[in-house]
TrEMBL record:
One of its GO terms (molecular function) is methyltransferase activity. It comes from the Bacteria. Residues 24-308 form the S-adenosylmethionine-dependent methyltransferase domain. The keyword Cytoplasm does not apply. GO terms for biological process: methylation; rRNA processing. Gene3D superfamilies: Vaccinia Virus protein VP39. This is Methyltransferase. Keywords: Methyltransferase, rRNA processing, S-adenosyl-L-methionine, Transferase.
Length: 312
C-alpha cells in the first residue's frame, strides 16, 4: 500500500451522495482493481465507518490515512451520519482496532436485506457478518420455505437467520465456536424468531456425524468453511470428507450450497471434488457476488456454488 494511492480512496468516499440504509462495503481494495490499495477495505456499519488493513503499511500511509479521516469527518454528510471512523489492523497479532474519529460502539446493530444482525467490534479478526455473502443469504431466504436445513460452520448463524425468515421448517447450526453460536441465538432473537425451530450444535464436525444425522435428512445443506482452522479444518484436505457424507444427509432431491473463499482455489475445485465424492450431485450455478466486491479475477473471489441431487 502506498500513500500516493490514497487520493483514489479519497475520491471514492468523497463522491458519496448518501450512505446506504443497510450495511455495505464501500471500498474493496482486495479485488485488486485499485493499484496501491490492494490491502484495504472500507465498510459502512450503520453509523460507524470501518477501515480494515490486511497488510501492515508503513507509518507514512497510516499518517496520511489519519489526515484523510479528519478531513472526511468535516464533510456535511459525514457530520450528520457518521458516529465514528475506525481503523482495524487485521494483520497485527492483536487485531488492534483504532478510533480515528468519534466514539466506538463495540456492540453494533446493522440491517441486511431487511434482517437484523448484531456485530461485535473490537480486537478480533471478524465482527460477526461476512458482507460478501449477502447474495448467498438472500438466496437462502428466498428458497427456504418449509425446508429442513443444515448449516455447517455456522459462525454467527447468518444463513440460519435468513432461512427462518424465509419460512424454513428447521435449521441445524453446527460450529465448534460456542461463543459464535451464542451470537447466532442473539441474531435470531433480534429478528423475533422462534428458537424452537433452530438447533445449535457446538461440536467439531468430524466427531459429530451422528448428532448431525439425528436431525436429518435435510432438504438443503450449506457448507461455508474457513480456508484453514488450526487443528480442525484444512480446506483442500477436509472438504472432501464432508462431500462424501452428503448422500446420508440429504433428502432424495436435496440441494447443497457449497462455498469456498480461498483466492488460490477456483470454482472448478469444488465442482471436481463434488463429482468425485458425491457423484449424484449435479452442479446448477454459481451465485453472483455483490457488485461492490468486484474482483479483477472473479475466480479469486468468493465462490458460492449450488448443486442438486438427482436420482441415480
Amino acid at each position: 500500500m502506498t500513500p500516493t494511492a490514497l487520493p483514489l480512496l479519497d475520491q471514492q468516499l468523497c463522491e458519496l451522495e448518501q450512505f446506504p440504509d443497510e450495511v455495505r462495503r464501500l471500498f474493496h481494495g482486495r479485488g485488486q482493481c485499485w493499484p496501491g490499495l490492494e490491502h484495504i477495505t472500507v465498510d459502512w456499519l450503520a453509523g460507524q465507518l470501518l477501515i480494515s488493513l490486511f497488510k501492515e503499511p508503513d507509518l507514512e500511509f497510516i499518517d496520511a490515512l489519519r489526515v484523510l479521516s479528519a478531513k472526511w469527518a468535516q464533510l456535511p454528510l459525514w457530520q450528520s451520519k457518521v458516529k465514528s471512523i475506525l481503523l482495524h489492523h487485521r494483520s497485527r497479532p492483536d487485531c488492534e482496532l483504532e478510533v480515528l474519529w468519534g466514539t466506538l460502539s463495540k456492540e453494533q446493530q446493522v440491517v441486511e436485506n431487511g434482517l437484523t444482525f448484531l456485530l461485535d467490534l473490537g480486537n478480533k479478526q471478524n465482527n460477526g457478518l461476512f458482507l460478501d455473502m449477502r447474495f448467498g443469504r438472500s438466496w437462502v431466504k428466498s428458497n427456504a420455505q418449509d425446508k429442513r436445513i443444515l448449516n455447517l460452520f455456522a459462525y454467527t448463524c447468518g444463513f440460519s437467520v435468513a432461512a427462518i425468515a424465509g419460512g424454513a421448517k428447521q435449521v441445524v447450526n453446527l460450529d465448534m465456536a460456542k461463543a459464535a453460536l451464542g451470537k447466532g441465538r442473539d441474531n435470531h432473537r433480534a429478528n423475533g424468531h422462534e428458537l424452537n425451530k433452530v438447533k445449535f450444535l457446538g461440536h467439531e464436525l468430524f466427531k459429530s456425524w451422528g448428532k448431525v444425522r439425528k436431525f436429518g435428512p435435510y432438504d438443503l445443506v450449506i457448507i461455508d468453511p474457513p480456508s484453514f482452522q488450526k487443528g480442525s479444518f484444512a480446506l483442500t484436505k477436509d472438504y472432501k470428507k464432508i462431500l462424501r457424507r452428503l448422500p446420508e444427509l440429504l433428502t432424495e432431491h436435496g440441494q447443497v450450497l457449497a462455498c469456498v473463499n480461498d483466492p488460490s482455489l477456483d470454482a472448478q475445485f469444488l465442482i471436481q471434488e463434488m463429482a468425485e465424492q458425491a457423484p449424484d450431485m449435479v452442479f446448477v450455478e454459481r451465485l453472483d457476488n455483490p457488485p461492490e466486491f468486484r474482483d479483477i479475477n472473479p475466480q479469486a473471489s468468493l465462490k458460492s456454488l449450488l448443486f442438486k441431487r438427482v436420482a441415480s
